[in-house]
Amino acid sequence: MSRSLKKGPFVDERLYGRVEKLASEGRKEALKTWSRRCDIAPEFVGHTFLVHNG
């Protein structure tokens, strides 16, 4: 189910920060996360996520 347009997309701040840190360092490694409800931001393209069930 999608979120309301009024609310906008949900992006987990902690996950977003981890992606930005990897991008600034120029590293490409898999990120382990439990945040299944997070929308895909354009900055996430090109990174690998290991999404686990909780």
How would you briefly describe this protein structure?
This protein has about 55 residues and is of the alpha+beta class.
Give an account of the 3D structure:
It is built from one helix and two strands, in the order αββ. The longest helix has 13 residues. The chain has a two-stranded parallel sheet. With 54 residues, the protein is α+β, with helices and mostly antiparallel strands.
Round the Cα radius of gyration to an integer and report it: 12 Å
Task: Please provide the ordered H/E string of secondary-structure elements.
Answer: HEE
Binned strand content: 5-15%
Shape designation = globular
Low-confidence stretches: none
Strand order of the largest sheet: 1-2
Through-space gap between termini: 19 Å
Structural class label: alpha+beta
Biggest sheet, in brief?
A: 2 strands, parallel
Q: What would you call the quaternary organization?
A: single chain
What is the residue-mean pLDDT, rounded to a whole number?
90
Q: Helix coverage percent of residues?
A: 10-25%
In DSSP terms, counting alpha (H) and pi (I) runs of 4 or more, how many helices? Answer: 1
Number of strands: 2
Topology:
Blueprint lengths: L12 H13 L5 E3 L15 E3 L3
Parallel strand pairs: 1-2
